[in-house]
Write a structure and sequence with these properties.
The chain is mainly alpha-helical. The protein contains nine helices and two strands. The model has no long low-confidence stretch (mean pLDDT about 90).
Protein backbone atom coordinates (compact mmCIF):
# COMPACT_ATOMS: atom_id res chain seq x y z
CA UNK A 1 0.00 0.00 0.00
CA UNK A 2 2.98 2.31 0.05
CA UNK A 3 4.10 4.84 -2.54
CA UNK A 4 6.04 3.46 -5.53
CA UNK A 5 9.74 4.28 -5.26
CA UNK A 6 9.76 6.25 -8.52
CA UNK A 7 6.97 8.53 -7.20
CA UNK A 8 8.29 9.14 -3.67
CA UNK A 9 10.26 12.30 -4.45
CA UNK A 10 7.33 13.90 -6.27
CA UNK A 11 4.94 12.99 -3.44
CA UNK A 12 7.31 14.54 -0.91
CA UNK A 13 7.17 17.78 -2.92
CA UNK A 14 3.36 17.63 -2.80
CA UNK A 15 3.44 17.13 0.96
CA UNK A 16 5.21 20.47 1.31
CA UNK A 17 1.83 22.05 0.46
CA UNK A 18 0.06 20.48 3.44
CA UNK A 19 0.50 23.56 5.70
CA UNK A 20 -0.89 25.76 2.91
CA UNK A 21 -4.06 23.68 2.56
CA UNK A 22 -4.47 23.30 6.32
CA UNK A 23 -4.49 27.05 6.78
CA UNK A 24 -6.57 28.16 3.79
CA UNK A 25 -10.23 28.14 2.92
CA UNK A 26 -12.42 28.81 -0.10
CA UNK A 27 -12.44 32.58 0.33
CA UNK A 28 -8.68 32.66 0.78
CA UNK A 29 -7.82 30.35 -2.13
CA UNK A 30 -9.38 32.32 -4.97
CA UNK A 31 -11.25 35.40 -5.98
CA UNK A 32 -14.02 35.46 -8.53
CA UNK A 33 -13.55 37.71 -11.54
CA UNK A 34 -16.26 38.85 -13.93
CA UNK A 35 -15.25 40.06 -17.35
CA UNK A 36 -16.81 43.21 -18.65
CA UNK A 37 -19.42 42.99 -21.35
CA UNK A 38 -17.63 42.94 -24.67
CA UNK A 39 -18.33 45.48 -27.41
CA UNK A 40 -20.07 42.80 -29.49
CA UNK A 41 -22.64 42.32 -26.73
CA UNK A 42 -21.32 38.98 -25.50
CA UNK A 43 -22.28 38.31 -21.90
CA UNK A 44 -19.54 38.46 -19.30
CA UNK A 45 -18.07 35.31 -17.82
CA UNK A 46 -17.28 34.82 -14.15
CA UNK A 47 -14.36 32.57 -13.27
CA UNK A 48 -12.06 31.89 -10.33
CA UNK A 49 -8.54 33.29 -10.14
CA UNK A 50 -6.63 30.98 -7.83
CA UNK A 51 -3.71 31.82 -5.58
CA UNK A 52 -0.28 31.11 -7.00
CA UNK A 53 0.36 28.41 -4.38
CA UNK A 54 -2.60 26.39 -5.58
CA UNK A 55 -1.59 26.75 -9.22
CA UNK A 56 1.95 25.68 -8.29
CA UNK A 57 0.54 22.62 -6.51
CA UNK A 58 -1.56 21.65 -9.54
CA UNK A 59 1.40 22.19 -11.88
CA UNK A 60 3.55 20.00 -9.64
CA UNK A 61 1.09 17.13 -10.07
CA UNK A 62 1.22 17.53 -13.86
CA UNK A 63 4.97 18.08 -14.13
CA UNK A 64 5.87 15.08 -11.98
CA UNK A 65 3.70 12.60 -13.87
CA UNK A 66 1.41 11.96 -10.93
CA UNK A 67 -1.81 12.16 -12.93
CA UNK A 68 -3.71 8.92 -13.48
CA UNK A 69 -4.77 8.98 -17.13
CA UNK A 70 -7.31 6.22 -16.38
CA UNK A 71 -8.60 7.85 -13.21
CA UNK A 72 -12.27 7.10 -13.85
CA UNK A 73 -11.60 3.39 -14.42
CA UNK A 74 -9.34 3.27 -11.35
CA UNK A 75 -11.99 4.89 -9.20
CA UNK A 76 -14.76 2.64 -10.51
CA UNK A 77 -12.66 -0.50 -10.06
CA UNK A 78 -11.51 0.33 -6.54
CA UNK A 79 -14.74 1.81 -5.24
CA UNK A 80 -17.09 -0.91 -6.44
CA UNK A 81 -18.30 0.78 -9.62
CA UNK A 82 -19.90 3.59 -7.61
CA UNK A 83 -18.05 6.87 -7.94
CA UNK A 84 -19.41 9.21 -5.30
CA UNK A 85 -16.69 11.73 -4.66
CA UNK A 86 -17.46 12.59 -1.04
CA UNK A 87 -17.82 8.94 -0.04
CA UNK A 88 -14.43 8.16 -1.55
CA UNK A 89 -12.78 11.17 0.11
CA UNK A 90 -14.15 10.40 3.54
CA UNK A 91 -13.23 6.72 3.16
CA UNK A 92 -9.76 7.50 1.86
CA UNK A 93 -7.97 5.73 4.72
CA UNK A 94 -8.73 2.37 3.13
CA UNK A 95 -7.35 3.26 -0.32
CA UNK A 96 -3.92 2.71 -1.78
CA UNK A 97 -1.67 5.10 -3.68
CA UNK A 98 -3.33 4.42 -7.05
CA UNK A 99 -6.78 5.31 -5.77
CA UNK A 100 -5.53 8.43 -3.98
CA UNK A 101 -3.86 9.65 -7.16
CA UNK A 102 -6.97 8.83 -9.21
CA UNK A 103 -9.00 10.91 -6.76
CA UNK A 104 -6.57 13.83 -6.94
CA UNK A 105 -6.56 13.59 -10.74
CA UNK A 106 -10.36 13.61 -10.76
CA UNK A 107 -10.50 16.80 -8.71
CA UNK A 108 -7.83 18.50 -10.80
CA UNK A 109 -9.39 17.56 -14.14
CA UNK A 110 -12.97 18.36 -13.14
CA UNK A 111 -12.18 22.05 -12.56
CA UNK A 112 -12.26 22.30 -16.33
CA UNK A 113 -15.96 21.40 -16.30
CA UNK A 114 -16.98 22.86 -12.96
CA UNK A 115 -15.37 26.23 -12.21
CA UNK A 116 -14.71 26.60 -8.52
CA UNK A 117 -14.25 22.92 -7.72
CA UNK A 118 -10.72 23.57 -6.47
CA UNK A 119 -12.10 26.27 -4.16
CA UNK A 120 -14.66 23.80 -2.83
CA UNK A 121 -11.94 21.16 -2.42
CA UNK A 122 -9.90 23.64 -0.39
CA UNK A 123 -12.89 24.75 1.71
CA UNK A 124 -13.99 21.19 2.46
CA UNK A 125 -10.38 20.15 3.14
CA UNK A 126 -10.31 17.54 0.36
CA UNK A 127 -6.75 18.49 -0.62
CA UNK A 128 -5.74 18.28 3.03
CA UNK A 129 -7.35 14.84 3.37
CA UNK A 130 -5.60 13.59 0.22
CA UNK A 131 -2.23 14.95 1.32
CA UNK A 132 -2.63 13.44 4.78
CA UNK A 133 -3.34 10.05 3.20
CA UNK A 134 -0.24 10.41 1.01
CA UNK A 135 1.73 11.29 4.14
CA UNK A 136 0.47 8.10 5.82
CA UNK A 137 1.36 6.04 2.75
CA UNK A 138 4.80 7.67 2.63
CA UNK A 139 5.43 6.61 6.23
CA UNK A 140 4.56 2.95 5.51
Amino acid sequence: MSIPTEKKQAVEKLLEYLPFFESTDREDICRWVTEEKSPDGTMPVTYPMYRDELIDFINLVYENDLMDTSYMQTMEKLSGDEVELEAIIYGIDRYDFDMVMALLTFIIRQERFCYGLWAMAARDKWFTTILNRLKDLDED
